[in-house]
Write a structure and sequence with these properties.
The chain contains no helices and eleven strands. It is mainly beta and 117 residues long. A hairpin with a 6-residue loop joins strand 4 (31-38) and strand 5 (45-50).
């Protein structure tokens, strides 16, 4: 199984980025997918997750600015990030877990997002 995250980069505050996570080696539609992030000196935190049918969950602090989505036909997870703030600077990871599991089975390698003020 491979999760390949991409789309990170350097952006000014107020800008937007779209992250992608290409999955292979798993039945994508059967997995709950998520984005996590880890800022320097901080613990990894959940950004958002989405089940196969499209239901979503967001961290309260990010509602309205970030949108998680998935394309099951393309085995790809997305994170649209708008109105970015310097506090959003972090490495963003995608993760996958089987429906009904409490643990994340697979992690991507991470993509760096840096927001300048």
């Amino acid at each position: 199984v491979q999760l390949q995250a991409s789309g990170g980069g350097l952006v000014q505050a107020g800008g937007s980025l779209r992250l992608s996570c290409a999955a292979s080696g798993l039945t994508f539609g059967s997995y709950v997918m998520a984005w996590y992030r880890q800022a320097p000196g901080k613990e990894r935190e959940l950004v958002a997750c989405i089940v196969g049918g499209g239901s979503t969950y967001y961290a309260d602090s990010l509602k309205g600015r970030f949108t998680i989505s998935r394309d099951n036909a393309k085995n790809t997870l997305y994170l649209q990030m708008n109105s970015l703030e310097p506090e959003d600077t972090a490495v963003y990871y995608c993760a996958a877990r089987r429906i009904g599991s409490s643990l994340w089975d697979y992690w991507g390698q991470g993509t760096q997002v840096t927001v300048s003020s």
